[in-house]
Structure formats: structure tokens, C-alpha cells
Amino acid sequence: MIELKTPAEVDRMHVTGRFVAEILTEVGELADVGVNLMDLEHHVRGMIKRRGAESCYWDYAPSFGKGPFRNVICLSVNDAVLHGLPHDYVLRDGDVLTADIAVSVDGWAADSARTVIVGTPAEEDLRIVRATEEALEAAIDAARPGNRLGDISAAIGAVAREYGYPVNTEFGGHGIGRTMHEDLHVPNKGTPGRGMTLKPGLTLALEPWFARTTDRIVYDPDGWTIRSADGSRTAHTEHTVAVTEGAARVLTRRDGESNT
Fold first, then answer.
1. Is 252 in contact with 105 (CB distance < 8 Å)?
2. Where is the Peptidase M24 domain (predicted)?
3. What is the pLDDT of residue 1?
4. Residues within the annotated binding site for a divalent metal cation?
């Protein structure tokens, strides 16, 4: 069932969203050459505990994945793009790191992701990160009342096409609110004018992610980490947004974050 949130409920989701933004800001600042992924995991665990929040990932057990997820953040490196299981890995110069997190505060969830480059960036890595950021802003701009769900998907796909990146549609955005995953799948490619009509109070996690040269994915033996099938590098950017009477309200925007 699709639940439209009241303005007061969206405000409560925004409280969670600001905390998620704080977490991702700190992770981006801490991610550096020589830092172990498990150090980042434990830092985030501490932030969640001090805030009195709840991880949406801990014990998450969907149809995919091997057993319940027993971490609070997804950390995916280089060709890994989704559901990266934190493990004993020390970041190296030039690594591409995606951090994806969802938490709940007082019963309301928010979900966001960002990709950062550790140390010295390669231009092609900067380019794919920029593409996901631009695709997300295009999706947010399309999330207006009267538009269709397909308009959001088409906006993401158009940016991918402009950059020359293929698009996987198995995993994409989703509804969010009282739980991390609510009804509605938002593919990262679609047809304008198709699908559900967007209405104020609809809350969505929009998450364009691309691999440089393939739309196919493979899973690690851990049953969670998803990688590009050809080993090409990846990027993933995500925000939780609420459809309003006008422009969408971004609930997980980080302080100082560019809109492009």
C-alpha cells in the first residue's frame, strides 16, 4: 500500500534525513588512504547509538542476500556499487568508495548514499560520480505533482545516456517512510508519462547508480555485495525526497552540497 505522508510526518522524516546527512558527511571526511572499512562501520555504529536511532540495515533479510545483514552501513569499493558488506579492507589511493545508509529516528526512516574518491582522483572516476549526481538532481526536479513515476526514471536514464553509461534496472529507487522499503520501485530508466501519478506526500528514495561499461551485475560470495559484471568502476548517489505542491523537498541534503 502507498501511504501519502502529511506535512508533519514529512517534517519527522526530515529530522531523520538530517541525521543521515550528518553520518555521510562524517564518513566522507574520514575516508582516507590507510583507513579500514571496519573503522568506518564502527564509527557509524557509535553515531547511531549516541543519537538513539535505529539502523534499518541490521538484521535486514530480503529475498536476496545471504542471511541477515549484520552491519549498519553499506561500504562498496571500486567495482562494487550496492550492498557492500563492510570487511577488513584498507582504503588505497584512488579507491572509489560508496557509502549507503538508512536509519530510523522515532519511527521514521531516511536513506541516502554518496560516492567519494579516496586520495588522488582519476578523471574517469570523477566523471561517473558527477553523472550520478546530475542524474539524481534531474530525478528530483521531475518529482513534482502531476508528473508520472516514469518521468523520474526517464530523467535518470537521459543523464546516463548523455554520459554514455548503460543502466541496470534490477535495483533502483523505492518508497520509504515508516520503513526503509515501502511500495513503489523506481527504475533508473523508464518512459515519460507512464506509471503512477505523483501526489504531494509521496516519499521516495531516488538512487541512480551506474557502472562505466556494463549494465550487468554479479554478487560476491558474501551474498550481499553487488559488483559490475565486467569489473568496471561504479558510482551511486541517493537522496530521500518528498513530493510537495511545488518542487520536491530533499530530506537528506548535506550542508554545502551542490545541486549539480
1. no
2. 12-245
3. 81
4. 100, 111, 174, 207, 238
**DSSP states along 181-240:** SEEEEE-SS--TT-SPBP-TT-EEEE--EEESS-S-EEE-TTSS-EEETT---EEE-BEE
- Confidence check: pLDDT of 65 > 80: no
Domain span at 190: 7-250
List binding-site positions for substrate.
Answer: 83, 181
Using one digit for the tens of pLDDT, what is the confidence trace for 170-193?
A: 999 999 999 999 999 999 999 999
CATH number (domain holding residue 198): 3.90.230.10
- In the chain, the number of structural domains is 1
Q: State the number of CA atoms in the 13 A half-sphere of 47 facing the CB.
A: 23
Instruction: Give the residue numbers of the binding site.
Output: 83, 100, 111, 174, 181, 207, 238
Average pLDDT over residues 242-255: 96
Residue with cell string 558527477:
130
- Amino acid identity for residue 199 in this structure: K
How far, in Å, CA of 69 to CA of 121, rounded?
31
> For 211-222, how does the pLDDT look when each residue is reduced to its tens digit (9 = 90+)?
999 999 999 999
Whether residue 260 is contained in a domain is answered as no
Flag whether 210 is in a domain: yes
In a domain, 213, yes or no: yes
Residues in Cβ contact with 11 at an 8 Å cutoff, skipping those fewer than 6 apart: none
- 1 domain residue, yes or no: no
For residues 116 and 123, what is the distance between their CA atoms, to the nearest angstrom? 13
